[in-house]
Amino acid sequence: MKYTEKYGGAVIISSEGKKLVIEYLYTVENYFTFNIKVKSGEFTGASNFCISKESIVSVVETLSKMHEQLSGYCEISDSDSDAHITVEMDKLGHMYMTGQIGGSHEEHYMKFKYITDQTVLINLIQILKAFL
Question: InterPro entries per the record (predicted)?
Answer without folding.
Answer: WapI (IPR056510)
